[in-house]
Amino acid sequence: MQSLKEQINLQRLPHHIAIIMDGNGRWAQEKGQDRLYGHFHGVESVRNIVEGCAELGVGYLTLYAFSTENWDRPEYEVSGLMELLVDTIRKETETLNKNNIKLHVIGDMNMLPAYAQKELNESLEITSRNTGLNLVMALSYSSRWELVQAVKHIAGDVKAGKIDPDTISQDTLQKYLTTSNFPDPELMIRTSGEYRISNFLLYQLAYAELYFTNVRWPDFRKENLYEAIIDFQSRERRFGKTGDQLQQEALSQ
Ligand code: IPE
Ligand code: IPE
Ligand code: MG
């Protein structure tokens, strides 16, 4: 009997996996614990999944860790999450570096407390020359925020005479997004049984395969990731064409 990992076709890995890490609060509450207890255990899943992606050779992993809307949560939860973030970055940077993982951050960094920005900037610098897995943390991120930022920058550049509005294309817009250096995610996973996108990478997920699981984030492990990848590999990605066209293209290659 083949293990789940052995069932993965390494030639057809998604280049970019994006994950909405949901369900920490419910996981904790089901155990009669405080929500922060769930976030704390969620870090173990992050470690495990980052390791899993690095072992497989996935190019990009984007983790939605904190949304623009999450600032509206109770103050104690927000500050607890910020402390957890800083603590985790401090502890894990060395491991990231050892494993040749390059950290990136997307989102409104200016919203983060100064001590968190400092810690993140250090980690970004330390891992900046690594060439393995690109780990993208979405922090104080929302897609609508990102699109508004992009429009503002484009408008500014039009005003400054740097861009001719007639030449604006999908490529132009792509260059002004926070994800300009990354390929679009091919697989988007959301844990904990919620079937929504919650303002995450709305533009970039245009052709992503979506995978939803009831597993709460603190319980999500490599085996769950493998299941999602195997499911991804069983799907036919048509990009608007017909199944027959794709078969003919495959035959002519
Ligand atoms: C995801 O878990 C983590 C963050 C949004 C920071 P939640 O905290 O949303 O957990 P639930 O959805 O309330 O269970
Ligand atoms: C999305 O989860 C944001 C993150 C996982 C960071 P939420 O729990 O905030 O999303 P909603 O409120 O259920 O849509
Ligand atoms: Mg949630």
UniProtKB/TrEMBL annotation:
Q: Origin organism of this chain?
A: Paraflavitalea soli
Q: Which family does it belong to?
A: Belongs to the UPP synthase family.
Key words of the record: Magnesium, Metal-binding, Transferase
Please indicate if the UniProt record lists Metal-binding as a keyword: yes
**Chain residues that bind substrate:** 23-27, 35, 39, 67-69, 71, 73, 190, 196-198
> What Gene Ontology molecular-function terms does this entry list?
ditrans,polycis-polyprenyl diphosphate synthase [(2E,6E)-farnesyl diphosphate specific] activity; magnesium ion binding
Return the PROSITE patterns for the record.
UPP_SYNTHASE
Q: Which Pfam families match?
A: Prenyltransf
Instruction: Indicate the quaternary assembly.
Output: Homodimer.
List the CDD domains hit by this protein, alphabetically. Answer: Cis_IPPS (cd00475)
Please tell me where Mg(2+) binds in this chain. Answer: 22, 209
Q: How is the cofactor bound?
A: Binds 2 magnesium ions per subunit.
Catalytic machinery residues: 22, 70
Enzyme Commission numbers on file: 2.5.1.-
Q: For this chain's UniProt record, which GO biological process terms are given?
A: polyprenol biosynthetic process
Q: Which domain of life is it from?
A: Bacteria
The record describes the protein's role as: Catalyzes the condensation of isopentenyl diphosphate (IPP) with allylic pyrophosphates generating different type of terpenoids.
Name it. Isoprenyl transferase
Is DNA-binding included in the keywords of this UniProt record?
Answer: no
Give the protein's cofactors: Mg(2+)
